[in-house]
Design goal:
6-stranded mixed sheet, 21 helices, globular
């Protein structure tokens, strides 16, 4: 086997051996005839509250039974996945399966194959009939899952319904709107009226409590000016928001709202804990959040029955028009994909195990768990039992789900929308889900792109310099530290830092994506 070229100090290799028992990994059959496979992956924070290892869960006990495997999970310590991964891939005896964000491998997923760390699963495609059947029926998913050379580097998490791609948006105090006799805001002018009313009549000290990361994730408010935050597609062309004229208009609005006390004065330093406190304590009337961890969690935590939240539409300039931008994820959640290592002694069985998640039986198991324990079929609909929805031990729904499913997180399977229909079952959540879908954002989302191997380091370095500078200047413009009259010079600085080169690389990668 070729020596792996992933360059980390040799001393780490010795540490890897100590941490992962290198040289002791076995894939021989167990006494009961099952194939032993080692599987390196994160243990989610939810699952870690009830088990020490995924092999202990009813979910994987059933998976092992159905696939005739004995899975030995190896979990890095919480919060140390990247550090331990960097050590792991220097090992001379890798675990059979490694679940990770392979986009972060130095040089990208194709480099991981070239470095003899993982295999191209397409070389064993006869052992993966289920995922290949899905690819044949969903070409966009296939394109996002393979490198430019056509290699399938890992089994991804696939959002099996378009609605699963939209789960985040603006959340507003519906009870405040009703109390003040205000309509749901749509246009920028209407939003300004509502925020002023929340400040003046409800005493909200931070009427709009959104962070820069919230703005970036959902193109909040800049979308009304016809531009997105960061990189996006516009009529087949890759663009960068700050280079477009409308972005200055967006910053002008944010600066105005900041000066008037409508935008949270701490927007540049907000974290989730601060936002939670703001919305629950009446400090804010509008935030950005998700269906489950946002609307659902807040409404269950509220101290009064009158507290009511709902999803607000993404802003526009003209009433009645469809928002051009909003929140939309690609159908492939490639950030937690399961790859088969070059050292796996039974690659065919490992691939069969991972391919199980794309079969009808596997999808049911990973989304809903075990019939009669975590779900029952009601007229063909898999309905979660009270073991999940109203756990007698007081477990939160996500924690209960973590014992029986992967649906709440990610992994090598196809996520079913019926999971989210039940996880976000409140009328307010269902209404928000419907509202947030009504945008043209899908036309602007960049799919996962694979730049050329010799461009990966260049792209990473340029992106780091550009993003750091852009974030710094956006904050300064909004706070008035940097006069908006200097906007053009900031654009020139972005160009000097290589943003046009990044656009060139991304445009080329997008063209290659379209031709796959």
């Amino acid at each position: 086997m070729m020596k792996k070229k992933y360059s980390i100090a040799a001393s780490f290799i010795l540490l890897a051996a100590a941490l992962y028992g290198c040289g002791e990994v076995q894939t021989n059959q167990t006494e009961d005839g099952k194939v032993h496979l080692t599987y390196w992956s994160n243990l989610t924070s939810y699952a870690s509250t009830v088990v020490n290892n995924m092999a202990e869960t009813p979910l994987y006990q059933k998976v092992m039974e159905l696939t005739n495997t004995d899975i030995e999970f190896i979990h890095p310590p919480q919060g140390q996945a990247t550090e331990k991964f960097n050590i792991l891939v220097t090992s001379d005896d890798l675990p059979d399966i490694i679940q990770y964000n392979w986009q972060n491998y130095p040089g990208g997923p194709q480099k991981a194959i070239n470095d003899k760390v993982i295999v191209d699963i397409n070389q064993y495609k006869d052992y993966a009939p289920n995922i290949n059947k899905y690819f044949a029926e969903h070409d966009d998913v296939r394109k996002m899952s393979i490198t430019d050379s056509g290699a399938l580097f890992a089994f991804p998490c696939i959002r099996g319904d378009e609605d699963l791609e939209v789960t985040v948006g603006l959340i507003i105090r519906q009870d405040w709107l009703e109390e003040l006799g205000l309509e749901m805001p749509e246009t920028i002018d209407e939003w300004e009226t509502v925020l002023r009313a929340f400040k003046d009549k409800k005493g909200a000290q931070a009427p709009l409590s959104i962070s820069l990361s919230n703005i970036r994730a959902s193109h909040l408010f800049c979308g009304a000016y016809g531009v997105g935050m960061g990189y996006y597609i516009d009529d087949g062309k890759v663009k960068y928001g700050m280079l477009e004229p409308g972005f200055k208009d967006f910053l002008t609005l944010m600066n105005k709202w900041y000066n008037e006390g409508l935008l949270d004065p701490d927007f540049s330093a907000l974290d989730n804990t601060m936002i939670d406190s703001n919305i629950l304590n009446g400090m804010s009337g509008v935030i950005s959040g998700a269906l489950g961890s946002g609307i659902g969690r807040y409404m269950s935590s509220a101290e009064t029955d009158s507290f009511k939240l709902t999803g607000a539409p993404f802003p526009t300039m003209e009433k009645g028009t469809t928002p051009e931008f909003g929140y939309w994820q690609p159908p492939v959640a490639a950030g937690n994909a399961a790859a088969v290592s070059i050292d796996c002694k039974n690659k065919e069985k490992a691939i069969e195990l991972l391919d199980f998640g794309y079969s009808e039986e596997g999808c049911m198991l990973y989304n809903f768990g075990i019939e009669s324990q975590s779900y029952t079929l009601e007229n063909g609909y898999p309905k979660y039992t009270e073991n999940i929805t109203n756990n007698e031990e007081g477990l939160a729904m996500t924690v209960a789900l973590s014992e029986y499913t992967l649906a709440y997180d990610s992994g090598p399977f196809i996520q079913d929308r019926r999971y989210l229909e039940q996880y976000a079952s409140l009328p307010e959540q269902q209404a928000a889900w419907d509202t947030w879908k009504k945008t043209n954002m899908k036309e602007h989302v960049l799919p996962y792109l694979y730049v050329q191997e010799d461009e990966v380091s260049e792209l990473a370095n340029l992106n780091n310099a550009i993003d750091t500078y852009a974030d710094e200047m956006i904050i300064k413009f909004i706070m008035g530290i940097e006069p908006l009259e200097n906007y053009d010079s900031v654009v020139e600085q972005l160009k000097a830092r290589g943003v046009e080169r990044v656009l060139e690389m991304k445009q080329d990668a997008y063209s290659r994506y379209l031709s796959k």
